[in-house]
């Protein structure tokens, strides 16, 4: 499930954006200003950004974003009531990937966000490697040092997701969303149980893991092999 961050100061518009994007199957984190957005943006797949915001403007924030090595490639859809061609050009030249003028239809909003995600997110490689661990997406099979791991489907999905995003920390809630799906009714303990099971398959010592690391107060991450070695 792709994660979209929305920064829009008008509460009604923000609620409408959230409603239609979530209805389209996207996970949404919404803010009324640019303050406190860093953690969400680090986990985001796209940003919907209003031009006129309290404090720092959307345009100023976008310019700052494009100077950040970690976020400069984040796809950005700029929202604005400004319809003049010169202003649209200014937004695009400041780093916006696309531009949508208010008022807009829900269908166009969703279509533009989906187009950004398709255009800018890399295709998932069919084979993932992290040191001696190999995850074959198409075959739904994982191997450690060439030996096949006997995983359940959900164990494989969790391992594949964390391996694909090695180095990034995901909370239990985020993992439930991204691996189990928004309709899953179980609790966060489910994630802990699956991580424990995966560690047993991988031969990972939970006190000094080479692969699945617990980040206190935050969640779990797959350690890149260069960190573990």
Description:
The chain is of the alpha/beta class and 229 residues long. The protein folds into two domains: 118 residues, Response regulator (Rossmann fold), CATH 3.40.50; 102 residues, Winged helix-like DNA-binding domain superfamily/Winged helix DNA-binding domain (Arc Repressor Mutant, subunit A), CATH 1.10.10. The chain is 39% helix and 20% strand. Strands 2-1-3-4-5 form a five-stranded parallel sheet, sandwiched between helices. A four-stranded antiparallel sheet has the order 6-7-8-9, with helices on one face. Helix 1 packs across helix 5, helix 6 crosses helix 7 and helix 6 crosses helix 8. The two termini are 31 Å apart. The model has no long low-confidence stretch (mean pLDDT 85).
